[in-house]
Write a structure and sequence with these properties.
BirA Bifunctional Protein, domain 2; binds 4-amino-1,4-dioxobutan-2-aminium adenosine-5'-monophosphate; binds magnesium ion; 476 residues; OB fold (Dihydrolipoamide Acetyltransferase, E2P); alpha+beta; 21% strand; five-stranded mixed barrel; 2 domains; 14 helices
Length: 476
């Protein structure tokens, strides 16, 4: 019978002989194959009877080769594993030139592995990260499914820029060299594929709102695209966003939902992915040892995740946060690149990190931001200058979630759009929601890769998505 490595290592296998297919991770003493098939971080040891195996075959058992092994599962003679396979036959399915194979059994830099992203999931670190990513995706759907949400697929190609930041990728089939022009000499998008200007979505929120206002509780989980020229360890041009949207829910309910949701999905991986988490935790501990004491983390990876699951997020208004920042040491000593002088300042990531990492030392929900630094759709507070926005900030990550209670009053929304020069004609359908049975509603967006970064302890967002898209880079 055929098994996976995971099955062989964790289940009581009674049927013998067994068969397995996988890739050689290492071969030593012409005898011991470390075999991996992706089903677990662990390899299974396969012991080759080298005296009775063709020399030509032994030569072809190289790192990276795909093999089909038949044999007996036996209690291991050696240390380090409970069981091993006594190989009775081995077939080389695909050779791998040991001189050329990029993934040698040694430590590679993440930069090198990014250039070989098509092979990097053959390493322990990247296979662990991708299994965790998969597990977290499942936990996302599980959470919403168990809590009465419907999964909605919002369009990837849209005519709108939900965030109004102008950071969209155009979708067009016009001839870039010779586009049709209108009477004013501008590109005539009426002649384009969709008969109007269109772009890749930056967020599924606006469409999700339409479904919340009929199905009640919905969420989207799909790719989003931003043409912002940010070359940081936390920005991608293509990333996955989770966006729940709920009718009759206010900002306080939104905070409760976001906190409960994050605790649930992180709790899921603690329960189901302990081996991968332990591997990544040890990887980080080794990395930390090379750092000076003062820069080392006080908690291990699993402790950090548990801390989030077990403790309440701190809820702080923007106004309180500004007070804290104004009076903070780095502000007074002018250590921030952007000195906080007065209420109304936009928070930079250095400020967010100070709040979560130095001041509160836990996840923080900041709410009630100044209206003019947030998107048009957020509900205006009675004070007339703040909106019902919330950002959730995480240690080591910064902004993980951005959300708000939505402006449900037609006139207030129209006024806001006018002030920001957002076309009512374009968003006629969005305004209709405020005409026909409008109601309080709220939602948020969580950047999935930032969650995976937190859950895996990886320091660069390019290392938690299979094929990162960033400025000047769309390889693979
Ligand atoms: O704060 P943002 O821009 O909010 C929205 O798009 C809202 N429409 C969401 C909603 O209310 N439904 O983005 C939400 C989250 C951020 O908090 C961040 O985690 C992530 O998306 N994000 C990015 N992740 C990776 N790369 C980028 N360039 C990102 N931009 C935002
Ligand atoms: Mg945001």
């Amino acid at each position: 019978m055929s098994y996976t490595v995971s099955q062989l290592l964790t289940q009581d296998i009674t049927f013998q002989p067994i068969e397995i297919k996988g890739w050689v991770r290492g071969f030593r003493s012409n005898r011991f194959i470390a075999l991996n098939d992706g089903s677990t971080i662990n390899n299974i040891q396969c012991v080759v009877d080298f005296e009775n195996t063709d020399e030509a075959i032994l030569k072809r058992i190289t790192t990276g080769a795909a093999v089909h092994i038949k044999g007996e599962l036996v209690e291991s003679q050696g240390k380090g594993q409970k069981v091993e396979i006594q190989v009775t036959s081995i077939e080389i399915l695909g050779d791998s030139d040991p001189e050329e194979y990029p993934i040698q059994p040694k430590k590679h830099t993440f930069e090198f592995l990014r250039e070989n992203a098509h092979l990097r999931t053959r390493t322990n670190t990247f296979s662990a990260v991708m299994r965790l990513r998969s597990s977290l995706s499942f936990a996302v759907h599980k959470y919403f499914n168990e809590n009465g949400f419907y999964y909605m697929h919002t369009p990837i190609i849209t005519g709108s820029d939900a965030e109004g930041a102008g950071e969209t990728f155009r979708v067009s089939t016009l001839d870039a060299k010779n586009p049709p022009l209108d009477d004013d000499g501008n590109v005539d998008y009426k002649k384009d594929f969709f008969g109007k200007e269109s772009n890749l979505t930056v967020s599924g929120q606006l469409e999700a709102e339409t479904f919340a206002m009929s199905l009640g509780k919905v969420y989207t989980f799909g790719p989003t695209f931003r043409a912002e020229n940010s070359n940081t360890t936390r920005h991608l041009s293509e990333f996955w966003m989770i966006e729940p949207e709920v009718a009759f829910m206010d900002l306080a309910g939104n905070m409760d939902l976001a906190e409960d949701f994050m605790k649930s999905v992180l709790g899921y991986i603690l329960e189901h992915n302990s081996e991968d988490l332990e591997f990544l935790e040890n990887r980080l501990l080794t990395e930390e040892k090379s750092k000076p004491q003062a820069q080392r983390s006080e908690m291990s990876l699993i402790e950090k995740i548990k801390f989030v699951v077990d403790n309440n997020f701190k809820r702080v208004s923007y106004t309180e946060a500004i007070d804290i920042l104004k009076n903070s040491k780095p502000n007074k000593k002018k250590k921030f690149n952007y000195i906080i002088e007065e209420w109304g300042a936009d928070l930079q990531s250095e400020h967010e990190r100070f709040l979560v990492e130095k001041h509160f030392k836990c996840p923080v929900i900041l709410f009630d931001y100044p209206a003019n630094i947030k998107a048009f759709y957020m509900r205006l507070n009675e004070d007339g200058k703040t909106v019902r926005a919330m950002d959730i900030l995480f240690p080591g990550i910064g902004e993980m979630v951005g959300g708000s209670q939505r402006e449900e009053r037609l006139e207030v929304l129209k006024e806001k759009m006018k002030a920001l020069d957002i076309s009512e004609e374009e968003l006629w359908w969005y305004l209709d929601l405020r005409k026909y049975g409008t109601a309080v509603h709220s939602g948020f967006g969580l950047g999935f890769e930032r969650l995976v970064m937190f859950a895996t302890g990886m320091g660069n967002i390019r290392d938690v998505i299979p094929y990162p898209r960033t400025p000047q880079n769309a390889e693979f």
